[in-house]
Amino acid sequence: MLITQENAENKLFNLVEKLKTQAPTYRCAVFRLSLIPRCPNDAFDIITHLFLKMIDDKAQHAFVCDDGDIFILSRHFTLKVFQKLLSHPTLVDWLVSPKGEPAHLFEVGVDGDIIQILLQPKIDVKEHREEEAAQKQKEIEAILAENKRVRALNPDICMNAVASIDDRRMKHTKPHILIVEDDPFTQKLVRKALGTFYEVSTASTASQAIQSYVRHAPDVLFLDIGLPDVDGLQVLKRIQELDDNAYIVMLSGNAQKENVVKAVNEGARGFVAKPFPKNKLEAYIQKCPFIGDKLQEVS
Fold it and tell me: Is the model's pTM score more than 0.85?
């Protein structure tokens, strides 16, 4: 006997729709075990065992619904055999229901619509549960994402170091550039483009970016929008909360106008699109108010 449990309601509904025209003589025995208040845990095993004992049909197909109801399709199941099955001592003791007769035999060609009517509420309930489960999963994912965002934007930092960012930045003898980019290859390209005139630090995530910014007090921060843990625009806001004078230029492989506008509106000093040409990087560095005297000292 073939047994289907996963998504049984939908699969049987669709199969009955085909059998109504292609094999209308199929019979379907229905056991509405969900109506039986004291249904034994091994009810399915009991019923299928009796089926196999009374009918020699290798094509029998049992569908077990989520609510426990059983639908069994067979070409050779007659009303006489069905009645004999129901009168078996093993079933008589418990196959009763205060809500009506729990067992029925249908002919697919004649009663296919009735079988589908019995299945439809089960399908509706299942879909409703799946929708609820999907919605719950979305809520859980949203909570996890928010927790991740909060942790990334609030890493362990020394507040005394935050208070001294301006003083430490002014004491740099060599301009300090912080590159926040999650791609190591891109980090190397930007480092190479900047040459040896600058002290360069790198970070790959939002939390690393904030910690590195507080630790190094950079003159210029080149900040990628597409970070793996938190959107770069949120990192932009957080660093500006820590340092009113932060000089931040956004980096991105996507130079769409909306990204540029968002970055500038959030306080970025500019926007450089990949592949990050040296002249554009240098142009923003030259504009930085903290850089001028330091470049003269190291040139």
Answer: no
